[in-house]
Write a structure and sequence with these properties.
Layout lengths: L7 H9 L3 E4 L10 E4 L4 H4 L8 H18 L12 H13 L2
Antiparallel strand pairs: 1-2
Length: 98
């Protein structure tokens, strides 16, 4: 994910949940990509999506990478790690909260 380093609300939320934000250290990471990690249960983790701009940053990063891969006629290097069930559970949770 890429976001401005002064994204203070996200930084505070992550630190509050005993986490951190560090430069992404995988071979296909973009220059500004970072890894975000934290500790919480699922319901608490869903609160991160309420942080202004968080969803937009994730969507922009993923969309940009999908376009880049498509233009290069390549698949994601991490495709085998993508978990549709995780995305489905997030969507199911969000729909239930409306």
């Amino acid at each position: 994910m890429v976001f401005d380093s002064d994204f203070l609300e996200l930084q505070n939320w992550v630190l509050f949940h005993n986490g951190g934000i560090q430069k992404a250290n995988y071979s296909t990471a973009k220059d500004r990509a970072v890894a975000v990690f934290f500790y919480s249960d699922f319901e608490e983790a869903m609160q991160i999506f309420k942080i202004k701009g968080f969803r937009r940053a994730i969507i922009a990063y993923w969309y940009d990478m999908l376009i880049e891969k498509r233009n290069e006629y390549k698949l994601s290097s991490y495709e085998r790690y993508h978990n549709y069930n995780a995305v489905a559970r997030i969507l199911e949770y969000l729909r239930g909260k409306k």
